[in-house]
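In the design runs reported in the main text, the only information available to the sequence generator was the tokenized backbone. The following block is the verbatim input for one such run; it is reproduced so that readers can re-run the procedure and compare outputs position by position.
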């Protein structure tokens, strides 16, 4: 038997882990290609660079998701996390003074946080990371969603439809699963962005104030 023939079984003997990885990559490719196809004309100059980097980020996302220690279930065919959805949006379970006390102690670059958003009657939660903290001004900056007071209040017109919350299990579950509510009732979940999926791999479900440290991409 030649060397090629001896290696042949590796091409068809696929472990369940490899199959899940392949399903994740395929789902992420479909999602990201659709997103890129819907970009504004002004963004098209960056398209070649984005397409070139896509395989790297998709592989990294799939690898990190498979290594994630999470209480949520993974749907590899749709590249999404899933868990039971609360009947009502859990926004009102937190008070501004509670949120402020948490961020006074825990706010630091790299902290993962949930951002509530209401647009066109749809309520949802977005996963973001803190990149700047101003303790003197009692405010912090989220990488994608701007400045918020420690109490959660948005501080600019650009994020006026959003509100920063304390990371707790019910809210972070909604973040990771893309849970949404419309007219105070459950709605179909949204698909997380590739960036959000990468952030889910850094969540420490036992202590949200101490994210899992991942090597840089």
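Verbatim output:
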């Amino acid at each position: 038997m030649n060397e090629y023939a001896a290696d042949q079984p590796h091409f068809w003997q696929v472990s369940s882990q490899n199959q899940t990885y392949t399903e994740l990559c395929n789902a992420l490719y479909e999602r990201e290609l659709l997103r890129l196809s819907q970009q504004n004309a002004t963004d098209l100059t960056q398209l070649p660079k984005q397409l070139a980097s896509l395989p790297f980020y998709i592989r990294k996302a799939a690898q990190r998701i498979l290594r994630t220690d999470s209480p949520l279930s993974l749907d590899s065919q749709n590249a999404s996390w899933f868990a039971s959805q609360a009947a009502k949006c859990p926004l009102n379970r937190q008070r501004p003074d509670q949120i402020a006390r948490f961020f006074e102690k825990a706010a630091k670059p790299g902290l993962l946080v949930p951002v509530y958003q209401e647009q066109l009657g749809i309520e949802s939660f977005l996963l973001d990371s803190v990149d700047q903290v101003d303790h003197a001004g009692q405010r912090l900056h989220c990488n994608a969603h701007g400045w918020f007071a420690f109490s959660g209040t948005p501080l600019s017109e650009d994020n006026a439809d959003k509100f920063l919350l304390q990371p707790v299990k019910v809210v972070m579950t909604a973040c990771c699963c893309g849970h949404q509510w419309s007219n105070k009732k459950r709605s179909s979940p949204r698909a997380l962005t590739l960036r959000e999926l990468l952030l889910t791999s850094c969540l420490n479900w036992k202590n949200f104030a101490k994210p899992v440290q991942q090597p840089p991409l």
